[in-house]
Amino acid sequence: MNIRKARLEDVKSIVMLENKVFKQSLGPDFLVQELTDNPFAYYVVGEMNRHIIAYLGLRIVTPDAEMMNVAVDPEHQRQGHGSKLLEYALDFVMRQGVKHITLEVRKSNAAAQAFYIKHGFERSHIRKHYYESEDAVVLSKEI
Ligand SMILES: CC(C)(COP(=O)(O)OP(=O)(O)OC[C@H]1O[C@@H](n2cnc3c(N)ncnc32)[C@H](O)[C@@H]1OP(=O)(O)O)[C@@H](O)C(=O)NCCC(=O)NCCS
Questions:
Q1: Is-contact 18 25, C-beta < 8 A?
Q2: Cα–Cα distance between 2 and 91 in angstroms, integer?
Q3: The model's pTM
Q4: Tens digits of pLDDT across the chain (143 residues)
């Protein structure tokens, strides 16, 4: 998998990937705005044979960063691609001077929690009703 910064022309593929993985998407308008207008946004994609199979988005306000989303195509999950993408992004934010990164994940999403914990994140607290009907677990990592 080749990792590179996301470009405007990737938005359609990212929306398709999100719909496949989450059955919903941040939406093309939101993503276009992130990629064109938001100086704090950092989005990367993972390509295989010129096809986007993974993406990761975060926002950096040094010394803090907040993960927006990570998704790997279900056909390519559990093959180390998510880890590769996360390590790439963590290395980037560290070089930007980020010291502390946080994210929210659905309480029911045990796979994602295991994924982040494997990468050194720790459970911080619960955010009640963060997803309307579901609580979020807040995870954080010092880097
Ligand atoms: C979470 C996600 C990004 C992980 O990407 P991935 O490429 O599948 O993960 P990796 O192969 O790099 O796995 C690394 C570790 O994460 C953990 N992990 C990943 N998927 C897991 C699963 N389904 N169940 C339990 N642990 C899991 C394991 O500890 C794994 O290490 P191991 O394979 O040596 O046991 C991916 O499964 C995904 O896109 N999930 C759906 C979207 C999502 O939930 N995103 C996060 C919320 S924003």
A1: yes
A2: 16
A3: 0.96
A4: 999 999 999 999 999 999 999 999 999 999 999 999 999 999 999 999 999 999 999 999 999 999 999 999 999 999 999 999 999 999 999 999 999 999 999 999 999 999 999 999 999 999 999 998 999 999 999 99
Closest residue to atom 10 of ligand 1, CA basis: 80
Cα 93–66–55 angle (5° rounding)?
75
Dihedral pair phi/psi, residue 130, rounded to 5°: -60, -35
Protein residue with its CA nearest to atom 5 in ligand 1: 82
Tokens of 48: 């295989």
How far away, in angstroms, is 96 Cα from ligand 1 center?
26
**What residues are labeled active site?**
104, 116
For ligand 1, the distance from its centroid to the CA atom of residue 9, given in whole angstroms, is 27
Residues having CB closer than 6 A to ligand 1 are 21, 69-72, 77-83, 105, 109, 111-112, 114-115, 118
Domain ranges of the chain: 2-98, 103-143
Q: Please say whether the structural domain 2-98 has been given the CATH code 2.30.29.170.
A: no
**110: CA distance to ligand 1 center in Å?**
9
